[in-house]
Amino acid sequence: MATAPSIIRVVDLETTGETPSTHGVCEVGWQDVALGQDGRWELHGDGGSRLINPGRPIPPITQAIHHILDEQVADAPLWFDAARPVLDPYPRRLALAAHRADFEMKFCTPNMTHGADWICTWKCAMRLWPDSPSFSNQVLRYWRKPDGIDHERGLPAHRAFPDAYVTAFHLRDMLNEASVAQLLEWSNMPGLLPRVRWGPDRGKDWKEISQESLNGFLTDRDPDVRFTAETEIARRRGGGAVGRANLQGILL
């Protein structure tokens, strides 16, 4: 009997809002990525999705994003009852993954995930593919054009399974460039932004801006901005780097 492959499960949630204390999950989607016998990662299985009763009305502002209706989830299971089988599928799950995983992690508690580690494909994309014009799930899809992706299967955007499916292709390609350990390390740190997001230096590489401008970002409210500014300062002092190193340097 063949041994079940090691997998990383990509998950995507559609919710009624951003705060678990006042909002609920209304759909979960998943797609597995598995390590093959040839040592390459590929999508594994068909994936799937489930509607979830969020226990409260879905606000029009979020319905306008994912188009899930209250009547569609009225008879669906609650998140507490549905989460564990999706998030902890079987013992050979190495980790969970999501694009901007910090959002999914707010609703997927360690008890639901059996304490799983998380890979954030948004943070990892900025490390591996810093030349992308943006790092949203969909921009990466059309900029990179991952091999083998089925265009229609990845639609509509902002529904749980299509978004998980698209993210799985990004994760597959990341895993074939860098180790699981490296992706987890990047995911557990703030995001390293390739370019300045706003202000007079908007769009510039961090290496291009003045020291005075760089110092101003050290007190920014965004932890990703602060972390990137601190990393660039360390680089200028000879102790760090912003942007992508050569491939040999980033692989563990």
TrEMBL record:
Biological processes, Gene Ontology terms: DNA metabolic process
Exonuclease domain span: 7-180
GO molecular function, a single term: exonuclease activity
UniProt keyword list: Exonuclease, Hydrolase, Nuclease
Source organism superkingdom: Bacteria
InterPro entries referenced in this protein's UniProt entry, alphabetically: Ribonucl_H, RNaseH-like_sf, RNaseH_sf
Record-given protein name: 3'-5' exonuclease
